[in-house]
Specification:
Blueprint (H helix, E strand, L loop, with lengths): L9 H7 L6 E4 L3 E5 L7 E7 L6 H7 L1 H17 L5 E4 L15 E5 L9
Helix pairs in contact: 2-3
The structure holds adenosine monophosphate and zinc ion.
Length: 117
Amino acid sequence: MTGEPQPDCLFCKIVEGHIPATIVRETDTTVAFRDINPQAPTHVLVIPKVHYENAAALAAGAPQAAADVLQEAQAVADEDKLDSYRIVFNTGAGAGQTVWHAHAHVLGGRGMEWPPG
Ligand code: AMP
Ligand code: ZN
């Protein structure tokens, strides 16, 4: 749990512009960019600019930024004209988390099954 930029964090580097990304939206507190390995026609990652390792840590440490991430997820869905979409916060390696900077996956543009794999 931190709030400070982490030198080895991929998403902190995207926030800082040190690694390129296809950015679709940016606010004072968030960046939204296309996932490099899309799992749906719309697959955008919305991240807070501050570094927290997962969504729960973000909500505890920077609750306004957590709310901003959710608001931006809706804005991404609106821009891509999605009336149904899924927001996913993988939390922990067993759930598929591979990048330890909180991020919302916004997935849409195809049918979705439940339960997820
Ligand atoms: P997670 O597995 O939930 O931690 O999600 C990490 C996501 O980051 C994966 O869906 C990756 O495809 C995506 N990803 C990894 N590197 C990049 C990158 N350089 N630009 C955009 N998306 C990335
Ligand atoms: Zn980070």
